[in-house]
Amino acid sequence: xxxxxxxxxxxxxxxxxxxxxxxxxxxxxxxxxxxxxxxxxxxxxxxxxxxxxxxxxxxxxxxxxxxxxxxxxxxxxxxxxxxxxxxxxxxxxxxxxxxxxxxxxxxxxxxxxxxxxxxxxxxxxxxxxxxxxxxxxxxxxxxxxxxxxxxxxxxxxxxxxxxxxxxxxxxxxxxxxxxxxxxxxxxxxxxxxxxxxxxxxxxxxxxxxxxxxxxxxxxxxxxxxxxxxxxxxxxxxxxxxxxxxxxxxxxxxxxxxxxxxxxxxxxxxxxxxxxxxxxxxxxxxxxxxxxxxxxxxxxxxxxxxxxxxxxxxxxxxxxxxxxxxxxxxxxxxxxxxxxxxxxxxxxxxxxxxxxxxxxxxxxxxxxxxxxxxxxxxxxxxxxxxxxxxxxxxxxxxxxxxxxxxxxxxxxxxxxxxxxxxxxxxxxxxxxxxxxxxxxxxxxxxxxxxxxxxxxxxxxxxxxxxxxxxxxxxxxxxxxxxxxxxxxxxxxxxxxxxxxx
Length: 500
Description:
- The protein is of the alpha/beta class and about 500 residues long.
- It has helices at about 15-20, 60-75, 80-95, 100-110, 115-120, 120-135, 170-185, 200-210, 225-235, 250-260, 285-295, 315-330, 345-360, 395-400, 415-425, 440-450, 480-485; strands spanning about 25, 30, 40-45, 50-55, 150-160, 160-165, 190-195, 220, 240-245, 265-270, 275, 305-310, 365-370, 385-390, 405-415, 430-435, 455, 475, 490-495.
- It contains 17 helices and 19 strands.
- It is globular.
- It comes from Hansschlegelia quercus.
């Protein structure tokens, strides 16, 4: 039986108005039509229905956005730190006040449960803005003790300039905030390009920025695909810095192309994060959290704990507990109040996830649960069952590659030395988890794991004050924390001959 669901009955009047209004680019503080007049559709992945027609920004539109950001940079970078802080705080306040609207819009666009967005994505976004607002008045240089007689040397920390912020479809609002907040605090201006699969939250963010008094041109939003809009933005000579979160393949392309003009680049790319449970752990808590680590947001999280390594004596128990947790998940539209597992972002993404499972099935890997398209939803939707694979080999695709779906590969191990080596035998290094009551073991693993984040007896912890980024092919540069601000700054040394 196909489940009929009308999401329009769950949205606020403001969201309905926003969705019904024609969508436009946000350039120089104004919403404007794309010069070409071309559009593309954004789709509700839970129903397959068109939500809105989105403007496809061309080269000329991108040029206008960058020029608006260049013009605004002259005044924003010279604005007093206290005033920049006030504007960013006001921006944060309005996002917090519109938490319901942002959660509904992003849910419509991505399939994620609105309740989760409201209590995860929105607070993280608001926290990033408030944390970085405080940095406005704390960016300072130094006075090096130089050896030259009669010379005073001091340093200035200055904004890089125009930032191209390119964000992925799974965390549109969060990733935008993680880039906009430190860039604006540093005195930079931004051209934001959301992923074409989920552009709505970025356009609503532009609306809120204007209401918050963010000056014209300081934040601009251009929508479109990567091949045209994204490429034009990255190649523009007026862009000084590219801050990208997305796939490894696109990140490498951006880095190669940016090298020709020596643009500053920071990349937060994919992950294949090992989550390790030792036999001395609190097994029930570890298993429940491990299930959340992979099934949260349908596994479409760069830090998803998609590879679970379990000490052999407790393997059977952990598999049983996780299968039990998977069975508790309620699949449904993200706007339905009881939904705990939404749709994948698109049928294309579901087909990719299915291929991983089908290849595993053909290889004889045990499927403890899931591995199917649920039959109760419309054929145009993009739902997939939470899936658990048991003891695939290290060289299997489901272990070696990023699936980006609700698919967990559970493997067994025998020794701490073995599991550390196997966990690191990957091209990725974004995040990892360790579950143990042994403090020495916890510190040993934290040191041994080659990953930008190591969570011990917890998983997926984020805070605006804590740096986040990857090792190896998971990228370079850090969001959040002091490092998140510093990547938007450059240092100037000033020498004064005070003996002249």
